Amino acid sequence: MVTPAAPGANRRVVVNAIDDVVFETVPETGPEAGEVRIRGTVVGICGSDTHAACGHHPFIDLPYRPGHEVIGVVDAVGAGVDDSWIGTRVVVEPNLACGHCTQCAAGRYNICRELLVLGCQTPGGLADSFTVAVDRVIALDPALDDDHAILIEPLATPVHAVRRAAETVGDLRDRPVVVIGAGPIGLFVLLALRNAGAKVVVADLLDSKRERAERLGAAGTFDPTAPDAVSSALALLGGPAAVVVDCVARESSVAQAIELVDKGGAVMIVGVAAGAVPVRLDLIQDREIALIGSLMYVREDYTAAMDMLAAGVVPVDEIITARYDFEHSAEAFGASMDPENVKVLVQMGSGS
User: For 52-91, what is each residue's pLDDT tens digit?
Assistant: First the structure.
């Protein structure tokens, strides 16, 4: 049992390892100039969270204080922030950019040279309260309930990847696309591609994940380890893929992506590799394949994700598979390691 926070105290989760998820209590702080303080209502556990907790994430050091997928209510504002924000239900866009580097100036602040991410490199929203710059929050439409709103952040990353793919190969409507990996991000990529009109085939090791992908609209699925995996995928697609989205980012998945993509096509790397991955550059060069990394999102991707959720494109009952209260955050991390779970939520307080 976690002791409730005393007045002026703030409980927050600290991840030392996947089997060592604990609480710390620190003084509650008010927002600084340009900031708001938020009391979270729901926090999502991400694949990046579990990778980090297992010591496999190359850009998140242990221990860390999670909570980058978070919605909540503003309860205090700093100097220079309009008081009307108080009481507003918001979603957080957690990328913390410098605002003045070349990338930020070009609107690509998702790859800011000094990028930090709330809940990854800075303390996040899995706490009684937290502060963040007001330009990192978006007011939520009251019609969008918490179960939909908490999926904005994880959906925005695939929306960004699909947008970048379309910028590279053109309109994806009726084009063949492969998604490798049917975990949470892979399924969101599938939904974003379907929303763009693509014909999508999904690869995963587990029957249950392939079945879920088909329920979510995949035109077909295949086991990427089967001896006939490539020929099966090509048969389902009707030929090579215009785009392959790799949500696994291992040597075997990248190699398979290169086998499946058409000449002049694109391989999008959305999964986070644990380290260096060998790539067949001879084939990349000879076939003029675009090998593109895709990181997080910018505001237009957040907005597009919000529009998809508001339109009912995302069947939340297929995506949200487990819920825990704040006091059982450690169990939530454990549940997120179960491959049968898609999105595990931590309920922080009363939601909508």
Answer: 999 999 999 999 999 999 999 999 999 999 999 999 999 9
Is the pTM higher than 0.90? The answer reads yes
Looking at the structure of the chain, the number of domains it has is: 2
Q: Does residue 109 belong to any structural domain of this protein?
A: yes
Domain check: are 253 and 343 in the same one? Answer: no
Domain check: are 276 and 329 in the same one? Answer: no
Q: Which residues in the chain belong to E strands, given as ranges?
A: 9-17, 20-27, 35-45, 69-77, 89-92, 95-96, 116-117, 130-133, 137-139, 176-180, 199-203, 220-222, 241-246, 261-269, 290-293, 320-325, 343-347
286 plus 176 within the same structural domain:
yes
CA 24 – CA 4 distance, rounded (Å):
12
Nearest 10 degrees: Cα torsion 150, 243, 183, 149: 10
Which residue's entry shows tokens 């050091």? 61
Sign for the pseudo-dihedral over CA of 77, 309, 199, 185: positive
Q: pLDDT by residue (tens digit) across 264-306?
A: 999 999 999 989 999 999 999 999 999 999 999 999 999 999 9
Count CB-CB contacts under 10 A for residue 105: 10
Q: Strand, coil or helix: what is 40? A: strand
Helix (H, G, I), strand (E, B) or coil at 348: coil
- Domain, as residue range, for 238: 158-293
- What is the signed CA dihedral for 109, 39, 338, 248, rounded to 10 degrees? 0
Q: Enter the tokens of residue 217.
A: 């609209």
Does 298 map to a domain? no
Let me know if residue 4 belongs to a domain. Answer: no
Q: Which two three-digit tokens encode residue 74? A: 């503003």
Residues 35 and 113 both lie in one domain: yes
Could you tell me the CATH number of the domain that includes residue 141? 3.90.180.10
270 Cβ contact list (under 8 Å, min separation 6): 157, 158, 161, 185, 189, 245, 246, 247, 249, 294
The contacts of residue 262 (CB under 8 Å, 6+ apart) are 239, 240, 241, 242
Q: Does residue 29 form part of some domain?
A: yes
